[in-house]
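Reading a protein record of the kind used here takes only a little practice. The record below shows the convention in full.

——
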Amino acid sequence: MTDEHISPSTTSLNDYATTPVPQSETVNGVGIGMINGGLAFAVPGLITGIQLGDALGLKQSIFAFLLGGFALAVLGTVTGLVGMHNRFSSCMTIKFVFGTSGANVINLAFVLSLLGWYGINVDLFSQVSQQLLLTYAEVTAQAWQLEVLFGLLITVITIWGFKTIERITNLLVPILFAIVMYLLVRSFGYAEANPTPEVVSASLSFGEGVSAVVGSFIVSVVLMPDFSRYAAKPIDTVYASFLPFLLINSFVYVVAAFAGIVVADSDILSVMLVLGLGGLAFFLLLISCCVTNVINLYSCGLGIIAIFPKCKEWQCIVAAGLLGTVVASFNLLDNFTNFLFGLSIIFTPVAAIYVVDFFIVRRGEKYSLALLEHNERVNIRAIIAWMVGIATSMASNQGWITLTTIEVFDAVLLTLPTYYLLSRNKISVPQQI
């Protein structure tokens, strides 16, 4: 972790939400990668590994983890480079691409998806805390009380901005890694003592499994500029993407899948208790929920302020925390895999579009606030390409078209040329919509 001077603007309540990050505030790529690495150890990540292991079997799921992780790492590197070169948050970047008003549709979708993740983690925190208090203190706590307490803690941490998040994740990720390693060792021991045949539910195809892996982190990939805008050099975006998305993420998924298969259970808490982790299981689940929701709330706050630029960042974060607690009651965990697949459908084309816009259409010309003042309100070309990408994923999932047999890859293959060709022959767009 770097020890550079932290300016008042990054410790106050204005973390460069609408302005470029100055070079003096940049950090190394490993530190940035550890932020998304912290997400990999989160409970939803463990659930994803267990559910895909159950659906595909260990061998097939490992291939899905690696292929999906590689796709995320490559795409994250490219989107990260957009952030590094321009120093703007992802939500501001999307304004340059989709138009100052058109971007609000995309940013609202991001905010809603992040609130979904936030709600999932609040719900998990509440469930795990209730079991922890009942098991070790024989105390019965109300779910809403735990959710309010958790929300207050996360909101206070998030308000202090990027540098605080970086320090927290750099501290906790090695601890979480050690616990997951212990889970792997215990899984091997359990498998030797209790050999059982692997049962595969085959509830997903391989392509759907890869899409679920991509969906599990696609929001982080598209929002990569939120963190890569702090990267010092281009190579730092490579570290910041491949470290979490391919290495850490795949490792956690494989361990979770293997543990679930040997125990023959798809509930992560039950699996960890059967394997003898006890208090470590509760610690991992609770701390990972905290790390994940700090990051979710941070990006969610940036998204809200991009839509409502007159709103102060701390106010957006507080509002997002309150809304996320409400979303916790929607029980998204009951349809978790479908939730991941939906994210991959919606957001993969967005990443493809703004990468093409910056590197090919604009040929690396940096975005600037002066450019934004004269930007079109709605870039209909980007909206059309986005719709093409979403339609492609859905058609591929239904078997109506088949390019690679993997929905998100099909979407990228059609979204990239669609936006490029439309941008070469620009459609006349009214300036006032």
Q: What stands out?
A: The chain is about 75% helix and 0% strand. Confidence is low (pLDDT under 50) at residues 1-13, 427-433.
